[in-house]
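Discussion board: Methods & Data

I've been asked by a reviewer to show the raw model output for two of the constructs in my manuscript, not just the figures. I'm not sure how much to include, so I'm pasting the format here to get opinions. Each protein appears as its amino acid sequence followed by a line of discrete structure tokens. Is this the kind of thing reviewers expect to see in a supplement, or should I convert it first? Here is construct A:
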Amino acid sequence: MTLKISQHFDAGAIEVITCRQADDIHVRIRKDSHATFAQWFYFRLQGAVGQVCRIHFDNAAQCTFAEGWRDYRAVASYDRVNWFRVPTTFDGQVMVIEHCPAHDSVYYAYFEPYSEERHLALVGTAQNSPLVRVTDLGNSVDGRDISLLTIGTAGPAKQKIWVIARQHPGETMAEWFVEGMLRRLIGAGDWAGDSVARALLEHAVFHVVPNMNPDGAARGNLRTNAAGANLNREWLAPDPVRSPEVWHVREAIHAAGCDMFFDIHGDEALPYVFVAGNEMLPGFTPTQEAAQRSFIEHFKQASPDFQDQYGYAAGKYQEEALKLASKYMSHRFGCLSLTLEMPFKDNANLPDARVGWSGARSAALGAAMLEAICRQVMAVRD
């Protein structure tokens, strides 16, 4: 069987230089649509069963987060359901995957993908719950739906909690996180009758946008939408044409109000789970600082995967801070507002040699964060 690499499927992205012999395949990671960001890859290799494949990413050093390739291992799958890590090296210039496929068809990706079909199934399954209402907020640049899931019923004494994910579409761990959170919140599967979810929905209503950037997700972009906009730099003044995804969601938040806000992401370089707060903002109050510290302590108790020793420096986004979602929300509503980051690599505190950080671990973290939110809600109530 002739060697073949293909990428014309949902979220597929790669440029093939040469694919004539298994041990000397050369590819390039392509740029996002109408943008210069380059990091996401996802492709299918056929015809290499039983052969030692060496796939050279010739432009790895020119990618947006080249340092992210150090100590990184790509993921692979034969069925796009079960993903595992494969040997990957980076010499500072070229990244190489070395793997001997057990089947003639194998997929390689930057991280475990979260497909458009799975996204639609997640929204459809959620709305089967009497606790959930699905609202269409509007269209993306390419005309895809921007879906809002509201869990629970609003009330004058209930806290309004917003969770958004995948502003950066290649950070697929974010939607895996939301899936795990939603399953616990609506009592799906093993979470039926969960006391944390029941207590939360007595005192709070959740507004969740599982995929802020459906166009970028489908196109195989790392950070931008179909127009080349980095949505997490659009919150101060979103453009209804260039960044309608942010414009629609921000309008919905302004209309409903917000007491807590969480923006879910992945970090290319740091092998840890952490949050980025808002202590650098002018007007950040002692009350907000206490709420931020309290939540971090609650989250550490809820999940051993979460830590606060490693993360971003407080001044990282000083100049453009209010363009970012969580910082805009903190400033606008004076609420607890955080960006959660998960690794593309593995959690160095709890490494898993076979799968590293994964979709399942992201989902488990999403479910665990509800415990931290519950404690925070109860503390405010008391």
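Construct B, same format:
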Amino acid sequence: MGSHTDSTALPEPATPAGRAGLDAILADPGRAVIALDFDGTLAPIVPDPEQARAHPDAVPALAALAPKVASVVVVTGRPAGVAVRYGGFAGVAGLDHLVVLGHYGAERWDAVTGTVTAPAPDPGVAAARAELPGVLDGVGAWQGTWIEEKGRAVAVHTRRAADPQAAFEALRKPLDDLAARHGLIVEPGRMVLELRPPGMDKGVALLDYAREADAGSILYAGDDLGDLPAYAAVEQLRSEGTPGLLICSGSEEVPDLAKKADVVVPGPEAVAGLLRALAEAL
């Protein structure tokens, strides 16, 4: 296992399934897939999503771990190219086989080629985006809210509003109605409501990738409601005989995720520490 200080010791999973997942990764790392969300997991949550960057410890930890496992994949709602840029993932020694699945798997960036592959965007997103200012005005929630352009999706953040939770609640139904008119769905998150096309989520993306990579074991780390489908995908893989380990980054804002996790750590710095400890243990 190698020697550890307390700060880099591998945490003990709280469940038998989690312990089996960790044991399988340690026993046969060459078949382990390490999958991670970006915002809130590798990158601290910040008021302005355009200022999000990977924690300084994250990329070095991933670069230490990646050569020892089957693959490392980042699964995010962001456009793949944006996650690569904000993560600082391109051209990093050790991350030459990193894959980023952006827009919940609709886009894919491979470090090997350095290019993004993606289908054409859904026209419903542009139509909904055009109506958004009127919808926000209509509920008096314009003040302090922030529209994030995501290309294949559009998100409304309420974290900067005077009362973020009240703005979030006030927008739920109007945004559900707007999404329905344009054939979209609303994905709620931590003080954010995202409108995007149906049919792709982190669970679909993760299952497809795990099968493509012929994963012998899987680790998934996330922090938000959008990660619940990925958790469900790991639980499905477990039921099919592929051991898995579920990590929750931070527990206070999204208790639903923490309850399902095998290991809960306090945020991106601790996620990076866990990845580093895993790299040292292999």
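Answer (T.O., handling editor elsewhere):
This is acceptable in a supplement if you add a one-line summary per construct. For B, something like: Confidence is low (pLDDT under 50) at residues 1-7.
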